[in-house]
Amino acid sequence: MSIDTQTAAKVAKLARIKVEEDALPALANEFNTILGFIEQLNEVDVDGVEPMTSVTPMRLKRREDVVTDGGMQDKILANAPDAREGFFAVPKVVE
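Request: output the structure for the sequence above.
Response:
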């Protein structure tokens, strides 16, 4: 696949990037270079290769999934302009 200057202009417009008319050929060339790299990656045989999270084998850190209240109610309510009985107090807006 080859990108021409019209397609490069369209991509720039969709990305909301202002590109001067004289810079479009260079942009199209950059897009073609990127597509060339992608074609090279598509040629690599990855059958039987397991996905990795890192270049060094390690397990993901896991924690027990427990619901808590955070234990910081006093610290959080200290920032509130008005707090009553352990809750944020807001003005009444419904009559």
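Residues 18 and 44 are 35 Å apart (CA to CA).
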